[in-house]
Design brief:
The complex is a heterodimer. Chain A is built from no helices and 11 strands. Chain A is mainly beta. In chain A, strands 2, 4, 5, 6, 9, 10 and 11 form a 7-stranded mixed sheet that branches. In chain A, strands 1-3-8-7 form a 4-stranded antiparallel sheet, with no helix packed on it. The chains are: A mainly beta, B mainly beta. Chains A and B meet through β5 and β10 of A and β6 of B.
């Protein structure tokens, strides 16, 4: 089944403890992106990648890192999480460019 | 600046009635427009897109959207609503200043009343 897989689905962590949210797609998509969803703000793009070893900042990149060493994987790294990063995170991929995304099921992160 | 607006936070429709979820946009050049749906505890799912061609675009689950260039709108429609259509709907537009990016609206919650 064609899909984007995110892990974990739920995560509660403490301020400052480094964490990684994994994202993997099995569709050979070139374009991958991370979004956060907050009430009243819709979806905001954190980082995106147009291909392997190519990443760029979205609208809200502060406090996040990404890497794209392989085509299928696009992990999101929070080096020192803070409470304002409590949010619902989505990974998405598409064949080329952000047209007709396939989204993962989301990761609900709580930073206390 | 490129932008997309969904003027209604919530829309309530009785089951069986037609539904409309509104979206307006502001972009330079030709717009690429999208609708996504998010069911509870799920990721977003792609419904339909307009890039060029017929102003009436048909998508998944019986939804369609009408592109209106003069009104800069791309409203989502369905002739007869189902309770299972209750979800959060997002309109999105390509940022023509950066065509590797799309901008999402804030979302409209659709409640279909039995």
């Amino acid at each position: 089944e064609a899909q984007v897989t995110q892990n974990p689905r739920y995560l509660i962590t403490v301020t400052g403890k480094k964490l990684t949210v994994t994202c993997s797609q099995n569709m050979n998509h070139e374009y991958m992106s991370w979004y956060r969803q907050d009430p009243g703000l819709g979806l905001r793009q954190i980082y995106y990648s147009m291909n392997v070893e190519v990443t760029d900042k979205g609208d809200v990149p502060e406090g996040y890192k990404v890497s794209r060493k392989e085509k299928r994987n696009f992990p999101l790294i929070l080096e020192s999480p803070s409470p304002n990063q409590t949010s619902l995170y989505f990974c998405a991929s598409s064949l080329s460019g952000p047209y007709g995304y396939t989204f993962g099921s989301g990761t609900r992160l709580t930073v206390v | 600046a490129q932008s997309v607006a969904q003027p209604e936070d919530q829309v309530n429709v009785a089951e069986g009635n037609p539904l409309t979820v509104k979206c307006t946009y502001s972009v330079s050049g030709n717009p690429y427009l999208f609708w996504y749906v998010q069911y509870p505890n799920r990721g977003l799912q792609f419904l339909l897109k307009y890039i060029t061609g017929d102003n009436l675009v048909k998508g998944s689950y019986g939804f369609e959207a009408e592109f209106n260039k003069s009104q800069t709108s791309f409203h989502l429609k369905k002739p007869s609503a189902l309770v299972s259509d209750s979800a959060l709907y997002f309109c999105a537009v390509r940022d023509n200043g950066r065509d590797d990016k799309i901008i999402f609206g804030k979302g409209t919650r659709l409640h279909i009343l039995p």
